[in-house]
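Lecture notes, structural biology module. Today: joint structure prediction for complexes of three components.
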Amino acid sequence: MSVATESPAPRNYEVVPKTSPEGSELDGELLEVAMGPQHPSTHGVFRMDVVLDGETVVKLKPVFGYLHRNHEKIAENTSYLGSMPYTDRLDYFCSLTNNWAYALAVEKLAGLQVPERAEFIRVITAELTRLQNHTSVCGFLLQDMGALGTPLMYAFREREKILDLFESLTGARMMCNYMRFGGCRCDLPPGWLDRVRKIVGDFPQFLDSYEALLNTNEILLARTQGVGRLPRELAISAGVTGPMLRACGVDYDIRKVDHYGIYDRFEFRIPLGEQGDVYDRYMIRLLEIRESLKILQQALKEVPGGPIIDPKAKLRSFRPKVGEAYGRIEGPKGELGFYLISDGSPNPYRYRVRPPSLINLTILEDMCLGQSVADAVVTLGSVDIVLGEVDR
Amino acid sequence: MEQIDQIFVHLKHGVVAFLPEGLQPLVSILISVTAIVLVFPLLFALTTVLERKGLGRIQNRPGPNRVGLPRLPTLFPWLPKLRLAGFGQFAADGIKSLTKEDIVPREADRVVHFLAPFVLLVPVLLAFSVLPVGRNMAALDLRETGLLFFFAAGAATELSVFMAGWSSHNKYSLLGAMRAIAQMISYEIPLILSSLTVVMMAGSLSLVTIVERQSGVNFGFLHGWHVFTPWGFAGFWLFLIAACAEANRTPFDLPEAESELVAGYFTEYSGFKFALFFLGEYLGLFAISGLGITLFLGGWLSPFTFLNWMPSWFWFFFKLFLMIAFFIWLRGTLPRLRLDQLMNFAWKFLLPMTLINLVVAALWHFTNSWNPALRWLLGAILLTFSYWILGRGFEAKFRPRTYRYAS
Amino acid sequence: MLGSGILKGLAETAKNFVGSYIDESGLTTIEYPDERQTLAENTRQFPFLVFDGDDAMKGLRCVSCQICEKECPPQCIFIVKSKDKKPDHVGKPQFYPATFDIDLSVCMSCQICVEVCPFEAIKMDTEFELSTSDRFGQLLLHKGQLAKPNSHFQEIHPTDAAVSDAALAADKAKAEAKAAADAKAKAEAGIPRPLASSPEAVTIPPALGPPNLPM
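The predicted structure, tokenised, for the full assembly:
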């Protein structure tokens, strides 16, 4: 990716040279390994062409596109509403935040107002999505580190509870397809908020046990600290967003920067890392869960009544006026943006997704060079990618 | 009770006595070999199910509980579906691996590729021959070289690992084999050094003698297992860590690191050959656990004198079960180390610790006339202090961090 | 001291191990074919066509307006409009689908067909055990397989069904009031004519065979 190669940031980490300048007959050959697309730790059909000197990564080329589904072109040929279920399938872990980002872009384009109640529902569902995404990602990361599924299973146990909530609200566990332009599709089922309150109330207890499981584990510390370090300047110039950027110590959270939705009404803090290594990324996610819980607790206190969708919003024959809009939110993985150009027809003229996973992945080589294969796998795990979003 | 304890010994002697004089040694050997070849693979079969169930329970799920007896609807339609709590799983797995296609890569060195699993299995089974699994129940009591024989046989497995990795003609296999060789050779040293303390104290290389030396009684009820001494305690844990690495168990399962090397050196093995590798790995684990039990945990001795009435082989297998359970527990908890960390750990931590442990053992030997409490204290302080010193470097480098929040 | 983190982790897993035996919530697995979860009311899997009355083909609410066919994002609905008309629930003659196929292998259960349907004719089913042994023949569901009675809808989605039934009843009441007013006006005007809304007035031709698909 050109972003990485043209980056002005200096590579201030050591790359073990393969040969001494004069060369020696003891120098062996480099080993080229194509990790993926069918590899247990590439999180789907992702491929890393790795050149190894012994076990040290000398070169790493990420290869994308095995899951390309032509999402953007399809969206340009269906109605605005018709793309909504496709956005679920971008980052299938967080369909509700995808819905929100797309709905936000269309609302900007069509000038729709979201009613108060719908805004609260959006915040609640988005933060629940963040909870389940971050816990699972930490589980996947530890799985890549060899922790044989235990943290992942604990994460999934909690995730199931949140997915049950999603199912009773939207009808589906993962492909929620819930938000609509100007609001949400249906109102909360009776008793739903109480169920959320219970889960939010129980979650800190789970987090404590989850952190006790491995957070101070010496093996985890040794495997993650100083591994996959991402320099701050490189992160900024490569357009990295989300927990990865904040792990480098950059204070940038779109919830704070853009004040989209009703986030400026809630009080929450942005945890920042120092070193930008895998450990920081792992810890920042865990800390963000606690902040999300704070937002949820505040939001659950004051969900107002009222309509859930803008009465002006039309479901069928929806034609926004000519123009363009970019809607972005702080997805669990980073800045998720949708860019739309309307020519007044029922289909968008141009539809573009800014996927956080893809852009966070472009600097993979810079993080992995000079480290061992095992570190490359852990670093990839810490980026938090979903191939559905990377390849679209 | 004496009868039950010696039941297998009497059984064998009874069978052998029926035969003509010339055949007796041969049949005696055959019976011992058959017993080893039957019992430990069966234990392996049970362990695979137990391990999956144990891991499942650790992860809040029931583990395998479906496969029981096959229902035979044509023959016995009245028979209900017996699930046996999932303990039929190993039979299903065995049948599956037998019927699976055996794939050999085109570029592979066919002969070596074929031989590797067998080369793994033979030395592992040989190692069992010197293990005393009960009173008078060692297939082979090598008075002068028992422990050496065990280590020699155990070290031969490295050959098979490298054969498998090299012949597969696969990069993952090769990397896995390289890791395995480096790891096994590095950990052989702490393993042997930690065993050496026992040899020093017992004054014998015979495993049977080592067990008998632990039959002394402390406080009137506790058997004098080596693990109840400071050097034995430290030695046991050092041995356990090294054994973990020798048996390629988590957190030292780098040679077959799934998330990095797919399956390590047996990536290109399928079907029954894969099952043989699997079997060999577990038999290696049993063998080395058995050695740990023999050296430190009193072998077939009961822990308390008032439990002496229970058969000796029960105690051996019970301890073996506990050891396996411990390894499963570790596997369900810990992530994996990295190769350089693994090496550092072996050479910079385990090796000095085992050497210090040797000194502590020697001190223990020469302070025989002291007050036992004082002896204990001296050993414990020496070991704890060196543990702390050696661990300090790590804690200076890696420690949990605290995080700031954006203002 | 070195190793304390590992011990903490071991304690945590041991707690979960023991917890799975003594605590009901410690073992979260639902052993699916033996145990089943009650589905959430909003659960959606695959659309079905609602019909009123006893005869599926006669009572089908679908008027073959083809909105769902157009709006379906993956284009998995295929409708052929009938040549003739039959009365709908208010008695107005309407077209009906001569062919209504949904391809199960293409459908992504998004519920957009349900949302855009103005006639309360297509709804989401909660049945999820939809696998078949034939991926070509049996995954393309036809009108007959898709039609399910309104009572089924009332059973699986009681809240939604109540809303939908109320809307239809209001529709019908309005139509009946209008018809009665019309009849009254007509009667007053002295032109006796059979009511358009009475079902007997419209003769339903024998069902047409499935038309040849435009290939």
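Point to remember: The CA atoms of residues 175 and 197 of chain C lie 9 Å apart.
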